[in-house]
Structure to design on (120 residues):
């Protein structure tokens, strides 16, 4: 049986979630995986993906990747979730996907979330 690790000694872990159209997901995943997301001790490039419908209405000075200002858009998107072993990894991973000028994610305002995980 393996040695038990105290919860107090484990660093905080996070889940990074992002949404993108199917044709862009692999590019974004490559960027966040290269930054360290999606790793477990004996595995790499781990994620969970589900299909859904994204909805948005560009307003004001928006420059949307898809659609037009003032028009409600509904598009097929993938939701991708992956583990990040630290806050630093989560920040680095999302920055790699969303930083200019070489951003991997094509949206002007990408939909994403970062959740801090609890151990039980």
């Amino acid at each position: 049986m393996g040695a038990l690790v105290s919860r107090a000694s484990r660093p905080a872990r996070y889940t990074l979630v992002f949404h993108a159209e199917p044709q862009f997901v692999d590019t974004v995943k490559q960027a966040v995986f290269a930054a360290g997301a999606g790793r477990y001790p004996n595995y790499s490039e781990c994620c969970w993906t589900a299909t859904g419908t994204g909805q948005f209405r560009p307003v004001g000075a928006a420059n949307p990747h898809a659609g037009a200002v003032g028009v409600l858009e509904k598009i097929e998107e993938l939701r991708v979730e992956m583990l990040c072993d630290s806050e630093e990894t989560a920040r680095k991973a999302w920055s790699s996907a969303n930083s200019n000028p070489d951003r991997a994610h094509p949206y002007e305002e990408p939909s994403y979330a970062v959740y801090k995980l609890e151990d039980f």
Observations:
- DSSP finds two helices and four strands in the chain.
- Residues 21 and 77 are 4 Å apart (CA to CA).
- The longest strand covers residues 73-84.
